[in-house]
Design goal:
Pfam families: DJ-1_PfpI, HTH_18. This is DJ-1/PfpI family protein. One of its GO terms (molecular function) is DNA-binding transcription factor activity. Keywords: Transcription, Transcription regulation. With 297 residues, this protein is an alpha/beta fold. It has two domains: 168 residues, Class I glutamine amidotransferase (GATase) domain (Rossmann fold), CATH 3.40.50; 93 residues, Arc Repressor Mutant, subunit A. It contains 13 helices and ten strands. The longest helix has 18 residues. It is globular, with a radius of gyration of 20 Å.
Length: 297
Amino acid sequence: MPRVVFLLIPRVHLLDVAGPAQVFSTAADLGYKHALSYVSEDTHVATVQGVPLQAERVWPHLEPDDLVIVPGWRGPTRMAGADTLRRLREHHAAGGTVAGICAGADALGRAGLLDGRRCTTHHATQDELARLYPTAEVVRDVLYVEDKRVVTSAGVASGIDVALHLLSTRHGPYAASQVARAMVVHARRQGASPQISAMLRHRSHHDETVHRIQDLIDARFTQRLTLSTLADAVGCSERTVTRLFRQATGLTPLAYQTALRLERAEHLLGQGATTETAAREAGFGDPRMLRRLRARM
């Protein structure tokens, strides 16, 4: 069972912990199992909001499939020590993913994980992050950035976006869609970030019929889905499906499915897959189609 480990720094923000934790807890309730752990250099961790948290001082054994999340905090605080930063470096070097929410990016920077990578943080501290880590490329005014298994986010509520993104990359967009809807967060902020999942970017509407169509596409986006299949699933005509879908999302069902396939292929390519493998696993029948779509990006 994959493990999600939260590294808690004193004066941590509650929502930076609770938002992602709720995503993975809800995922577990829906059958996408994750074991949640909370570690810190102290067993009692103060929060900005005044609710004390408890954590373990001993880290669990980590595998490459495990995820370490560093939630943000408000300074002044006692920063993570050398041994903790070493653990972050070693987990990443072993193939694991690490994520920093808001000020959590600073901990990743102290561990040397931002060097030469794209990253982001809360808009109020982007200049400071760029000053502290001049070899990093700070991307401004986006919700989150992922660069070679190092994920950073703008902070606070964007931790939920990050967690849904990480869930999507591991279990597919349908899993993230299920969790988002269970948490009543499918009406997402648009933003300008290309890192925002296509599954979430086009869920900012309240048409339940279209959500049902999207649920079907999310679950089977690598397969061939005809308009008649979608129409039968929701009890509408094919013309009505197309009209409602375009009104709600600005796309046709096929364009939405293609966006999911392209996003999946980009993730696979980023993990080292060949174009042929990425095209096949994302549902493209021909790698030339994937090459043409990427050339238009």
